[in-house]
Design brief:
The complex is a heterotetramer. Chain B is mostly helical. Helices cover 67% and strands 1% of the residues of chain B. The radius of gyration of chain B is 23 Å and the shape is globular. Chain D is an all-alpha fold. Classes of the chains: A alpha+beta, B mainly alpha, C mainly alpha, D mainly alpha. Chains in contact: A-B, A-C, A-D, B-C, B-D, C-D.
């Protein structure tokens, strides 16, 4: 019922209702407090106004400790309650489910570039299926932007040089505004677009209609074109670690630390290979800083994430793999826990799930430095 | 008035001062431009600040006017996007760094603090004058930057936009703000040493007026936060000039580090703005309800508590900026802590009215308006501090409305209350009371109309710093602009009648409000050295009940 | 004597002693502010120092410890002469006061001179990001040119800000020496010597922390 | 504050020289230690020695030892706020990668 009230924007994600519930609760609570204070002030002011001709004598009231204690501790307790409620929602927002559909977003002055794992690319439009959790991995090519979808109640700053994540679960088909909420220069307020929430079947049709090479496939081409395969080969003469099944695992480094091979780690290892050198290998890799734009990086990372055992390309001539038959891409048709990017239609990739061989417990990751 | 037995009892009674003393005051003790530009009298320096800050307020207000006019239509038909960005940057920079932060300490604080503690001047008069010159240097520089092309970074100067992408005069703007910062450091230093060393005999810590307590707490923030701002702005300048990467992720820097250091100043700066306002309200509420403040020590310690806690909450400006979720949890919890002392103050002011003898003079109307608006602004702060909710409203007009409620609804209302309260002391003249009340009402109504729609806009998803917006937001934006025009009339009124009062206002006499503070025990305007004889204090600051009891009915006959 | 005291006492203080206590407190409060000016930059330094330890250690080893060490001694000596100046002022030894203040200022100048030599050496060694920097020489494992640059930027910002403070100190100490020659100070009035002494010692304190943070964060095998 | 304290404050020159010698020895010590292999402990050791030196300078050269409580308070405020700045900033950096996405 409340959601129909005109001052609330449309609710189109699973979390929107929770956010609005907290908002309406706080609105009622603070409204009551504000009303109480206002009534008291106006009431006192009128009740105790100076009457013409009356003496301005007033009782000498210095205060009351128990009242002070009361109105310090009661707000305190309420505040802690609000904090817990708000924190719960925030933590939900911060942890995408494992089966979320992953889509990449690159912000630049002043547009949103979106890449689907299947290779579809869009500008200022984001197509997503209804009901399926969607995890966005976002980065920026220049300054800080902010990906804001009011109908989803989600917002995240998009920083250059690192990946941020945000997720949502659309609950209603339709077109919803995307805004850039972080001031980013001249055309900041024009940096907007739409999320298109579609029925899963329509989404599949859309995906297939527009199929180009998948992201991982594009990444594979880059991997070969950039001669990465020369060192990161699967044979015994490899000069660099094999990348199969790397994503999501802990990697031991020279110097004794270990690091989780996540998006940010892969990104860093491409741009600054000397930063975290894998134990047992020489730091011989050159940097690719300046040779790759953000979209290329995403392609390469998508490729590395897709690499299952035995899937490293063999020779550089394999740049154009044979066309593969289309497979059902509807996320709803996939077995649970099988993330879409890992099972898409790259021909050299078998249809077996290529998810990391084990999943780390959350929070078990060794702390690392800033970005 | 001859029988006044004021709670502050000067050693020799504050009889109507001899004619010769009344004649010579700080305003007419000497004439000429030089006697003003080289003055070390805190009261004259306060007036120098008053004039320069009013000018800055008008310029910042003009920028706001253009912004609101541009937002009348969704397509932003008045100015170009670049101009719009420069306008809101100019508005933010001028209002925050060159008006709100210095205004109450530098004008009312400078004027009143020595009088209220019974001192002949601030501890370092020459430093005080120097701080005005430093401020003016910064102000001149920022005006030059704004009128020679402007700066388009917003007042927050987020990197890497400010250090790499912006093509405007960022570095001179940074330098100007560093100047303004040093000016407030000097002022804060002066206040702290004065409160410690120059209190009149008998003026113990718990007999200090609450305005002095709040100025003291403000000074602590000024001294300990401003240097961080100076340092981080210098780093941005170095990065920009030198082309290196302190905060540039392409060179292994971290843009969030800038935000941490920036908000370490800029969040406490909000309390630099609001704390002195709270002090003013304590003075005005007690005076116009003829009551002791309810819970003096709690209000005083709440000021100090706010000063300390304000430093522990800065990263609530960064909940969606990419800081760690654990850090966000810590800062959210701490943000709620700082709400407690503010709540204590509001409840105590309300309780002070209880069984008072309330009159509705202009300062009181402004003060009551302050309590209402500040309460509302503070309560919306609770919403912003709730993590899950913050994600949605962050960087939207909800935030804009929230901080305008605190800074304009709170701070500017309080400043108006203080200005009207001490105006007779400063100038020796009374302003037309009726016009004052009208202005207070107009400002209150205009303010509500301007900023309530912005809360709704923000929750509906209109992002801040928008030159153009979606058509469904237009109705509320037009409403807001309409409110802003009422607000503009409201602000123009005091400017007019206060200047008018300088020439035609009735003589005020030393104590038109029958107030208890030491500043009212000396003629209006005060003589150059404030007091003819050293005052001695033997009771608390708000003994209106005792005063009334001893004086009988005619105490408030004005 | 009385009239001279009256001329240096401001009207709003009860006595010279009252005034001196107030100015001393003022300087201490100002120094607390200064702690945070440097503290902000230290915080930035700390963040990157924790994140990029190997690069920071490698870069630190390239700094000239010989000059850094000598400069530390120079500054400590100047602090000694400054402390002796305050003592001389308190006990009214005018010639000693002038001599000690002069020595202090001279040692400050010596520090800046050595620092200039060091900066020039850094420039020749290609340790100045933006002006003269050689990314190729940083090849050790885990060492990155961009992170080395970050260390160097903080090195220049911190030592540069320190040098600015020192320069201000030198000018003021020189003025005080000149005033002392003109016999302005007496055992009753020496507040300026006292408070600017505090300032000078503070600048020394900053350097005491800069030495380990900039020069001594990795194991060294050579001075330069 | 009182007159008596002021006369007490005139410390003997020999104390200053002693402090100075201690400072020089500590400086030589800390520089010397940088040639020993302390692994990750260089900064910690360096900061501890620097804190000792700073304490000596503050207590004796800056007369903190005989100063009023308010002077201590000013110094404490500066250091305390620096601690706030550093520790709360580091809560972010040190916990950045705890929560995995």
């Amino acid at each position: 019922m409340f959601a129909q009230m005109s001052f609330l924007p449309e609710q189109a994600s699973a979390v929107a209702g929770k956010v609005d519930a907290l908002f309406l609760f706080l609105l009622a609570l603070t409204g009551a407090v504000a009303l109480g204070v206002t009534v008291l002030i106006i009431g006192f002011a009128i009740r105790y106004r100076r009457r013409p001709g009356a003496e301005p004598a007033t009782p000498r009231i210095m205060g009351s400790t128990w009242m002070e204690v009361l109105w310090s501790t009661v707000p305190m307790v309420i505040f802690v309650g609000i904090f817990v409620w708000g924190a719960q929602i925030y933590l939900t927002m911060a942890q995408p489910p494992d089966d979320a559909l992953e889509i990449y977003v690159v912000g630049k002055q002043w547009m949103w570039k979106i890449q689907h794992p299947q290779g579809q690319r869009e500008i200022n439009e984001l197509h997503v299926p209804l009901g399926r959790p969607v995890k966005l991995t976002l980065t920026s090519e220049d300054v800080i932007h902010d990906f804001f979808v009011p109908a989803f109640r989600t917002k995240i700053d998009v920083l250059p040089g690192r990946y941020e994540h945000v997720w949502f679960q659309p609950t209603k088909t339709g077109r919803y505004r995307i805004y850039c909420a972080q001031y980013c220069g001249t055309n900041h307020s024009g940096m907007k677009g739409y999320v298109d929430v579609m029925e899963p079947a329509d989404f599949d049709a859309w995906l297939n209609n527009r199929a180009e090479g998948s992201l991982a496939l594009e990444g594979r081409k880059l991997f070969l074109k950039l001669q990465c395969i020369t060192c990161h080969s699967a044979n015994s003469r490899a000069k660099a670690p094999v990348l199969e099944n790397l994503y999501g695992q802990m990697v031991s480094l020279r110097g004794g630390q270990a690091v989780l091979a996540d998006d940010n780690y892969l990104r860093e290892s491409i741009l600054a290979p000397q930063a975290k050198v894998v134990l047992g290998w020489e730091p011989i890799m050159p940097t690719f800083q300046g040779q790759l734009d953000e979209e290329d990086l995403i392609k390469l990372i998508a490729f590395i994430k897709s690499l299952g055992p035995g899937q490293t390309p063999v020779r550089t001539e394999d740049a154009e793999p044979p066309i593969a038959p289309s497979i059902p891409t509807s996320p709803l048709l996939l077995p649970p826990g099988n993330a879409l990017p890992n099972s898409e239609s790259s021909p050299t990739i078998r249809q077996t799930p290529a998810v990391p061989s084990y999943t780390l417990p959350r929070g078990a990751v060794e702390k690392a430095g800033p970005p | 008035m001859s029988s006044v037995i004021a709670p502050y009892r000067p050693q020799s009674a504050p009889e109507p001062a001899p004619v010769s003393q009344l004649d010579v005051n700080y305003l007419n003790a000497s004439y000429g431009v030089k006697s003003w530009l080289l003055t070390t009298d805190h009261k004259r320096i306060a007036l120098l600040y008053l004039v320069s800050l009013s000018l800055m307020f008008i310029i910042g207000g003009l920028a706001a006017t253009l912004i609101r006019l541009n937002l009348l239509t969704p397509t932003g038909s008045l100015v170009t996007a670049d101009t719009y960005n420069k306008l809101f940057s100019a508005h933010g920079i001028i209002m925050v760094f060159f008006f709100l932060v210095p205004v109450v300490p530098s004008v009312l604080g400078n004027f009143c603090l020595p009088l209220m503690i019974g001192a002949r001047d601030l501890a370092f008069p020459r430093l005080n004058l120097a701080s005005w010159y430093v401020y003016m240097t910064g102000a001149a520089l920022i005006l030059w930057v704004i009128f020679s092309g402007g700066v388009d970074t917003g007042w927050t100067f987020y990197t890497p936009f400010s250090s790499k992408a912006s093509h405007t005069d960022v570095v001179p703007a940074l330098v100007a703000i560093v100047f303004a910062g040093f000016s407030s450091i000097f002022t804060g230093l002066n206040f702290i040493v004065s409160v410690h060393r120059l209190r009149a005999p008998g003026m113990t810590w718990f007999r200090l007026p609450l305005f002095v307590w709040s100025l003291y707490a403000t000074s602590v923030i000024m001294l300990l936060a401003t240097p961080v701002l100076a340092a981080v702005l210098i780093l941005v300048g170095v990065e920009r000039l030198w082309g290196i990467g302190i905060f540039d992720p392409a060179l292994d820097g971290d843009p969030l580090l800038f935000q941490h250091l920036f908000w370490f100043y800029s969040h406490p700066a909000v309390y630099i703005m609001i704390l002195p306002g709270m002090g003013i309200i304590s003075e005005v509420i007690t005076c116009f309800s003829r009551k002791n403040i309810f819970g003096y020590k709690f209000v005083a310690f709440a000021s100090v508590g706010i000063a300390v806690l304000s430093f522990l909450v800065w990263a609530h400006h960064m909940f969606v900026a990419g800081q760690s979720a654990y850090s966000a949890l810590i800062f959210s919890l701490l943000s709620y802590l700082v709400g407690v002392p503010s709540a204590i103050k509001v409840f105590n002011w309300t309780a002070t009215l209880y069984k008072g003898s309330v009159t509705f003079h202009t300062p009181m109307l402004f003060a009551l308006g302050f309590i209402g608006l500040f309460t509302f602004g503070g309560l919306t702060g609770l919403m912003l501090a709730a993590l899950g909710l913050n994600v949605h409203v962050h960087d939207t007009y909800f935030v804009i409305a929230h901080f305008h409620f605190i800074m304009v609804g709170g701070m500017v209302m309080a400043y108006m209350a203080g200005l009207h309260y001490w105006w007779p002391k400063i100038t020796g003249r009374l302003y037309p009371e009726m016009w004052g009340r009208v202005a207070a009402m107009i400002i209150f109504i205009g303010f509500i109309l301007t900023f309530i729609p912005q809360f709704v806009l923000g929750y509906q998803g209109m992002v801040r710093r928008s030159h153009v917006y979606d058509p469904q937001f237009q109705v509320l934006n037009v409403l807001s602009t309409a409110g802003a025009s009422i607000l503009a009339v409201g602000y123009a009124l005091p400017l007019t009648y206060l200047i008018y009062s300088l020439f035609r206002g009735k003589k005020a006499g030393p104590n038109p409000w029958s107030a208890t503070g030491l500043e009212w025990q000396t003629p209006s305007p005060p003589p150059t050295h404030n007091f003819a004889v050293q005052p001695v204090v033997d009771c608390g600051p708000y003994e209106y009940s005792l005063q009334s009891a001893e004086l009988g009915a005619d105490v408030h006959g004005n | 004597m009385a009239t001279r005291n009256a001329s240096v006492r401001w009207h709003h203080f009860d006595s010279l002693q009252h005034q001196q206590e107030s100015t001393t407190l003022g300087m201490w409060v100002f120094l607390a502010t200064e702690v945070l000016v440097f503290g902000a930059i230290f915080t930035g330094y700390t963040v990157y120092r924790v994140a990029y330890t190997p690069s920071f250690e490698a870069a630190s080893r390239q700094l000239n410890l010989l000059i850094g060490g000598i400069n530390t001694i120079v500054l400590l000596t100047s602090s000694l002469t400054m402390a002796l100046s305050v003592q001389a002022a308190k006990s009214g030894q005018r010639r000693k006061l002038v001599r000690c203040l002069g020595l202090t200022a001279l040692m400050g100048i010596a520090f800046l001179g050595l620092k200039a030599v060091e900066y020039y050496g850094d420039y020749r060694d290609k340790l100045v990001p933006g002006l003269s920097f050689d990314p190729v020489q940083w090849t050790a494992p885990d060492v990155h040119p961009s992170q080395v640059q970050l260390f160097l930027i903080f090195y220049y910002c911190l030592t540069g800000l320190h040098a600015v403070h020192l320069t201000i100190g030198i000018v003021i100490i020189a003025i005080l020496a000149w005033m002392a020659r003109r016999n302005v100070f007496s055992p009753h009035y020496y507040a300026p010597v006292e408070i600017w002494g505090l300032y000078w010692h503070f600048v020394d304190l900053i350097w005491i922390f800069l030495l380990p943070l900039l020069y001594l964060i990795g194991t060294r095998d050579r001075w330069l | 504050m009182s007159k008596i304290k002021t006369t007490e404050q005139i410390a003997s020159a020999s104390l200053y020289y002693a402090v100075y010698i201690a400072l020089v020895i500590l400086t030589i010590g800390t520089v010397g230690l940088s040639f020993c292999n302390l692994q990750n402990w260089h900064t910690i050791v360096g900061l501890i020695i620097a804190t000792c030196k700073a304490t000596l300078v503050a207590l004796f050269f800056m007369h903190l030892l005989h100063s009023a409580r308010i002077t201590w308070l000013a110094l404490f405020a500066g250091l305390f706020w620096l601690a706030i700045l550093m520790s709360l900033t580091l809560t972010d950096y040190l916990s950045r990668s705890w929560l995995q996405y």
